[in-house]
Amino acid sequence: FKNKFNSLIDCYVPLRTVRTAFRSPWFTSALLRLRNKKKRLYRSASSSDTTERWAAYHNATLEYKKAYAVAKHSFFSDTLPSLLQSNPRKFWCLVNGPKNKNIDLCDELGLAIASDRCCEALQDVFKKSFSVDNSNHLPIQADPGYPRMEPIIIDQLGLFHLILKMKASAPGIDGIAPQFLKQTATYCSVIFSQLFSQSLQNASLPSDWKAGKVVPVPKPGDSSNPSNYRPITLTSIPCKLLEHIIYSNLIIFLEENNFFHNSQHGFRKHYSCETQLLLFTNDLFSASDTGSIIDCIFLDFQKAFDTVSHRLLLLKLSMLNIDSNTLRWIECFLSNRTQHVTANDHDSRNCSVISGVPQGSVLGPLLFLIYINDLPSSITSTIRLFADDCVIYRIITNSHDSSLLQSDLDNITSWCSLWSMKLNIGKCKIMRISRGSTDCTSPVYSISNFLLSSVNTYKYLGVHIDNNLTWNNHVSYVINNANRTLGFLRRNFSLAPVSLKLLLYKTLVRSKLEYASSIWDPHSCSLVNALEAIQNRSARFIVANYSRTASISSIKNSLDLPTLSNRRKQARLCLFHKIFFMNPEIKGTLFSSPSYVSSRIDHNFKVHVPLCHTNIYFHSYVPKTSSEWNHLPASIASNPDHASFKTAISNL
Length: 652
Known about the structure:
InterPro entries: DNA/RNA_pol_sf (IPR043502), RT_dom (IPR000477). One of its GO terms (molecular function) is RNA-directed DNA polymerase activity. Residues 198-465 form the Reverse transcriptase domain. By secondary structure, the protein is of the alpha+beta class. The chain folds into 5 domains: 23-96; 117-268 and 302-369, no CATH class; 278-301 and 381-466; 472-561; 567-650, no CATH class. The chain has helices spanning 2-12, 29-48, 51-86, 88-96, 118-126, 156-164, 178-183, 185-202, 237-256, 273-289, 310-318, 324-334, 364-372, 399-418, 472-492, 498-514, 517-520, 525-543, 552-558, 564-582, 584-590, 615-618, 621-630, 634-637, 642-650; strands at 211-218, 229-234, 293-299, 337-343, 346-347, 351-353, 382-386, 389-396, 429-433, 446-447, 450-451, 453-454, 457-460, 463-466. Helix 15 (472-492) packs parallel to helix 18 and helix 20 (564-582) packs antiparallel against helix 25. The longest helix has 36 residues, at 51-86.
C-alpha cells in the first residue's frame, strides 16, 4: 500500500524547490539587484576615483535605501497581515524568526563532533533513557472486576471525519503526509477502514508504523552539549489515525468503570493544570488558615515516559478486561519498535526502543496514565498527579505525622522498585509551609537513605509556589518573562500595523501574563499594578504613542483591552463554571450547599462560602470566587452552556 501510495504522489503531486535564504523576509530579489549594483559602482568609483562615478554610487545608494524602506514598510503593513489569513503557519514562522537547522556539538573533551556524526552522538544520548527489564518477577495484580470491553469496530464515516480533522504535521518515515490524506479523504477512508480492521483482527502492524524519526530540539542552555537536546519523535500518520480510534474506545471504557484515580489530572477530559493547581493550593490555603504546618514533597521521576517496562505495562493492561484483539494489537504496537535520529541532513543507525511508552504517539500518554494509576493506592497522605508530576503533602501536628509522610515516601520508593521506575533524588524537594506558626525547624525526609533538600519556593506545573503562600515570586517571574517578549516585539515589529501588533501582544505577551492566572490572581495592589504596567506599555507600543500626556485608559479603551485584573476575575468565574457543570468530582470536593438560600435575592446555584480567619485565605480562589459566583444574576449562573456564560460575564 505504501509503495502504491508514494508512486501516486510522485506521479500526480507537483514538487517545487524551496531555497532557504538567510536574510530578512522583506529582502526581495529586486533589493538584491540594487545592492549588487551599489557594490559594483562602489568598486568602480574606488578604482577610478572620478566625481561622476562617485555621484553614480551615491545615487545608487540612495535608491537602494529608499527601496529597502519601502519594501520593509510594505512587508509589515501588507504582506505579514495578509499571511495571517492565507498561511498562518508561515506567518508564525516569520514572527518567531528563522531557526538554525545546523547542529554543532562537542564531545566530553570539548572537541567538535563532525557534522555527519552528530546524529549518532545524539542517538547515543537518547537511547540511554531506555531501561532494561531484567526481572522475571511479575507483581500480583488484583482483578478490578470490570466487564469485558466491547470489540472495536472501524466505522468508515467516522474515519472520514477523523481524517478531515487532522492537523498539519510532519509525516513519519513512510512519508505519508496528512495534507494529502485530507485531499483524498473519501478514498482513503475506504482503504484505511479495511486496513485498520485487518490490523486489529490480526494484531499486526507494518514495520513503518513502529519506527520513529527523532528530531533533536535544543533545550535552554549550551547547545553544543548533546545531553542538552530534547527528542521529538515523528511517527506514521496512518498509525496515528488507528491510535485515535483505539484511544477513543479505550478511554470511554476506562472512564465508565471509574478506573482513573481522582488525584490524576493529566491528559483527562475536564481536568487540567488549573484544576490540579486549584485543589493543591486550596488545601494549602485552608490548612494555613488554621495555623497548621504543611510539609510538601515534590517528586521527580527520572525519564518517566521512557522507562516504562513493556512487560509490566502489558500485565496491567491484561487485568483490565480489555478486548483481546485490542490487547494483542497494543502488545504488537509496543514490541520491536525502532528509532533513528536525523541531524544535519544525516540519519543515525536504527536502535531498538526497549522501554517506554512510544513518544509522538496518540496512545502513549494514556498508556502512561494506566501504568502509574495504582501509585496513589498505598499512600495515606494527600497526593496530586499530573501525568508524572507528583507532589505528596500532609498537615504536620507532631512527629508521628512526619513519620507517616516518610512512610509514604518509602512506599513510593517500593512502588518504583516494583514497577521499574526511578526517582531523580537530586530533583526531589521538600517545602514546609508554616505561615503563622512559630515552628522554625527544618523538615527531614529521605529517599533510599538520601536526605532531600528543602526549598522556599518551587515551580509546580509552571506556577511558583512559596512557603509563605504569597505570589510575589511568581508575579516577578511572569513580569520578567512578558517584558522580554514585549522587548522582542518592540525591536522587530515597530513598523507593523495596529491590528497586527495587537494580535502579537495578545498571543505572545498577554498569554504569558495569564497562564493559570485564575489560581494566582493577586490581591496586593502593588502586584496588580505591576502586572497592569506591562499591558500599559504594550498598549503604547501598539498605537506608537509614548506621550506622557496621552491617557493610557483611553488608549486601552480604543484597543478594547480590559484590565488584566478584570480578565483574571472572568477566568476565575469561567473555571468555577466548568467545575460546577462539568466536573462533579471536583465540585463535590471544593463546594458545598449553603445553609440558607434566600428566595428573593439568591439564585438556586448558590454555594457555601468558607469562613476565613486569615486575609491570605480570604483572597484565595475558593472563598473569593464562591462569593463572586453567588452574586451573579440567576440568568447567568444557571446557564450550563460555557460559551454563552463566558460571553455573559464579559458583558457585566
